[in-house]
Task: structure prediction
Amino acid sequence: MVPASPVTIVRLGFRQTWIGASAADLERTRACFDRDHAVVLRELLEPDVLAFALRQVELDGFEERVHDQLVSRPVDLRLRPGVASAVLMLLTNDAPFLDFVRRATGLHDVRSFRGVIHRRLPNAGHDDAWHNDLVDRRLAVLSINLSPEPYEGGVLQIRELPAGRIVYEFANTQPGDAVLFALGDRLQHRVTPPEGRVSRTVCAGWFRSEPVRPSVGLPTRGHTRLL
Amino acid sequence: MTEVSLQTTVRASDDVVVRELDGEAVLLNLESGMYFGLDPVGTRVWQLIDQHHRLSAVVSAMCEEFDAPPETIERDVLRLVSELVEKRIVVAGP
Result:
């Protein structure tokens, strides 16, 4: 299955969000999202943001999280709160980017994004179950690849119910690229386990209808430590 | 608290990422990991700093826009900028 959006149409930078999508690009992106339930956003992170995030992720450090609800009780690593998470939350909640997402998906209720950075180790028995994420006013998913080099496995799969037919498969292995995909009560998704020797590290989360500040936990004034 | 005056010029630190979320500025210092959230008035001060740099110009513009005594505006702007300098969110020039 060939992902749409082979060109860069939106980029998150330290100074600003760059929207390069023409009206025709947005129309194509929207059509792709409607048809495939997903679109790939090439080079979503500008090179200096990507370089900073890759470096900062290692500095912030991970903590183990055991998935007790899965039979194999796999362990993945969740990034500790720190600068890497904070900067990505700030950039992904920029008004022009949220507006782009609304126009690219047709999800007019999108008002905020909240995600976490996590890492899955190869061959750690991480068999993801099919799920739909439909809680907590979630509308769509964004997964930004923060793996420093291409990994194997880690394929996003989307299936339609009730038939259960897989309608979308994509391994987002290019650092800084992102996949934006739909949620729905007739859709489920999962990610296949990473294989080989390279871990899969992503910033993944949900666009939601909740306003930005309560969603992201930002202060209304004054200063504070990170999330 | 860092001393600043109306003659001080300031600019955003290279280590700061700024975004306006729901109309209010959020400043993140990448080096220290500190957030600084501004209310709508503080956000307007921030925009004027970006535009004018010199604090006398910032205060003049604020006086035209806000119905408050000039001395109150001057005191509040200088206090806010002092704090921003202290947190290394802005850099003060000559």
